[in-house]
Design a protein that fits this description.
By secondary structure, the protein is of the alpha/beta class. 42% of the residues lie in helices and 14% in strands. The structure holds ligand NAX and potassium ion. Ligand NAX binds next to helix 2 and helix 3. The site of potassium ion has 11 residues, from strand 5 and strand 6. In the N-terminal section; belongs to the NnrE/AIBP family.
Length: 538
């Protein structure tokens, strides 16, 4: 499912109108009619009463005029509060405003703060609000008079329904431009916008419905839209089917380099998560003094003690041993709990340059790369990086706040610049491919804000790659499954307090839910088999 930016939506509207020949007026009619149906279903059915339509001077306001007309036709009292002089409304919106006049729908012109104050009583009487003030045409922070209007509507504490996007929300980043409507539900047109599903936009949008308004689906491809939503549908066939004769060698062998004193748990979780992902075998390479501890912490994974520094971190001299360990592996994951010793950094750099198998790099591995991300261009095999916003900030030389302001943009830029796959963790994880294609994940919940979740994700991605799943697909499937497992725990257990190891242990259930029928092996039922009733020859 495509997620579009404001500019892409504008280009799609234009292509549909100019090349496809569908008039803008028809699009606006479809938008307003569809939005009304959703408003009645999602908001208005709870109770009844007068509806205030707050309209701006652009086409978003035009959609609001159409909605007011349909409400009036249904006998629902609607008043349009027009936050612009009537004579500044143009085009399709102006045509729809005229229709309101002829239908007798009241339109209250509010052109400045004084007029706004004068209408406060009438505004207070409205039981519901439709927000058609600003849509994808928002071009800067909302200030002054419009800011007061948006604040006042929020403060009325009435159910608010947004047309296309909550007014004040940046459609490209999900960031608030000065102030923003808090909607209970939003009807958007043609395609969901990136900002609807990126935080904080997601919580301001409320329940979202995409209304089909007549834009042909192929137009998204024509204009080169590169953002998508991760859906179960695109992942359900990701897992290679297992034959009755499949053995652990077929299911792939993962090598994980992890751990340092005080961080042996990270190594154990990453290794066990690869097993939970379905990898056939996992070998865990750790600093040798940690080997006795890890031997008792993990059961299924094998452990190998590697040369270490005086402080007990992985040492560069482990390189030859690791290189020989990689030979029969399908994926190398490195980073959980490895620390940031310079010698470990040199080991990592040499592995990036030499590893013939895909690498997943996480945690301290990312902090080590941050000193010289150019090493990534010398990789032999594909690389997946899994930073959280803080690690991403170090990789990009930015502040965490700057990364969070445009998560998709930074993830895409880094992936393109360094030719890597990048998983930017956090609410609505972003998965970017070296060509700049980006997918957004919406599974998961705030209960995941706990130590160890990242280690589990690293092991999960590696475990999926080891099973032969293409790297970008494996990365998307992993973030989806990781969130899905946590969502199960949240609904069955508690909103927080569940552990990373519990998420890990729930992964097989999440995989089963994702695979659906594809996950079942169809053995013949016993009564379908025919047995000789007596031994042959008797
Ligand atoms: N044919 C089309 O283009 C269609 C557009 N549609 C609607 O049209 C909307 C986009 O319409 P427009 O491009 O006219 O833009 P909007 O209606 O979103 O807003 C544009 C107006 O807001 C003003 N504005 C921008 N930033 C502001 C700020 N920070 N503070 C105060 N005023 C600000 C602009 O000067 C402009 O007058 C969509 O969100 C959607 O609701 C739908 O009707 C479907 C068809
Ligand atoms: K709006």
């Amino acid at each position: 499912m495509y997620l579009v930016t404001a500019d892409e939506m504008r280009r799609m509207d234009r292509t549909t109108i100019e090349s496809f020949g569908l008039p803008g007026r028809v699009l606006m009619e479809n938008a307003g009619r569809g939005a009304t149906a959703f408003f009645l279903k999602a908001i208005y059915r709870q109770s009844t009463g007068p509806v205030g339509v707050a309209a701006g001077r652009g086409n978003n306001g035009g959609d609001g005029f159409v909605m007011a007309r349909y409400l009036c036709q249904k006998g629902i009292p609607a008043t349009v509060f027009l936050f612009s002089p009537k004579d500044r409304i143009q085009g399709d919106a102006a045509a729809n405003l005229k229709l309101l006049d002829s239908m007798g729908v009241p339109v209250v012109e509010i052109v400045d703060k004084a007029a706004f104050e004068a209408q406060k009583l009438l505004m207070d009487r409205q039981r519901f609000w439709i927000d058609a003030i600003l849509g994808t045409g928002l071009s800067s922070d909302v200030r002054g008079y419009f800011k007061t209007v948006i604040d006042s509507i929020n403060n009325l504490n009435r159910p608010v329904f947004s047309v296309d996007i909550p007014s004040g929300l940046n459609a490209d980043t999900g960031q608030i431009c000065g102030v923003c409507i808090r909607a209970q539900a939003t009807a958007t047109f043609g395609f969901a916008k990136v900002g609807h599903l990126t935080h904080p936009g997601r919580s301001l949008t409320g329940k979202l419905k995409v209304i089909e308004i007549g834009i042909p689906p192929h137009v998204a491809e024509t204009i080169g839209c590169r953002q998508h939503l991760i859906t179960a549908d695109m992942l359900k066939n990701a897992f290679p089917s297992r034959q009755p004769t499949t053995h652990k060698g077929h299911a792939g062998h993962v090598l994980i380099l992890a751990g340092s004193p005080g961080k042996s748990g990270a190594a154990a979780m990453a290794a066990n998560a690869s097993m939970r992902a379905g990898a056939g075998l996992v070998t865990l390479g750790i600093p040798k003094s940690l080997n006795p501890v890890l031997e008792t912490m993990v059961t299924e994974p094998m452990t190998v003690g590697l040369p270490e520094t005086d402080q007990g971190a992985l040492d560069e001299s482990a390189f030859e041993r690791v290189r020989s360990l990689i030979e029969d592996k399908r994926c190398l994951a490195i980073g959980p709990g490895i620390g940031t010793a310079a010698s470990t950094g040199r080991l990592l750099a040499r592995l990036i340059e030499e590893s013939p198998v895909p690498m997943v790099i996480d945690a301290d591995g990312l902090n080590l790369i941050a000193a010289d991300p150019a090493v990534l261009s010398r990789r032999k095999a594909p690389v997946v990086l899994t930073p959280h916003p803080g690690e991403m900030a170090r990789l990009c030389g930015l502040s965490t706040a700057q990364v969070q302001d445009d998560r998709i943009g930074h993830a895409r830029d880094f992936a393109q610049k360094h030719g890597v796959h990048l998983v930017l963790k956090g609410a609505a994880t972003v998965v970017a491919r070296p060509d700049g294609t980006v997918f957004l994940n919406v599974t998961g919940n705030p209960g995941m804000a706990a130590g160890g979740m990242g280690d589990v994700l690293t092991g999960l991605i590696a475990g999926l790659i080891a099973q032969g799943i293409e790297i970008f697909l494996a990365s998307r499937a992993a973030v989806y499954l990781h969130g899905l497992a946590a969502d199960r725990l949240e609904s069955q257990k508690a909103p927080m307090g569940y552990l990373a190891t519990e998420v890990m242990d729930t992964l097989p259930e999440a995989i089963k839910a994702l695979m659906g029928e594809n996950g079942r092996l169809f053995w013949p039922e016993l009564d379908e088999l025919t047995y000789p009733t007596r031994p042959a020859g008797e």
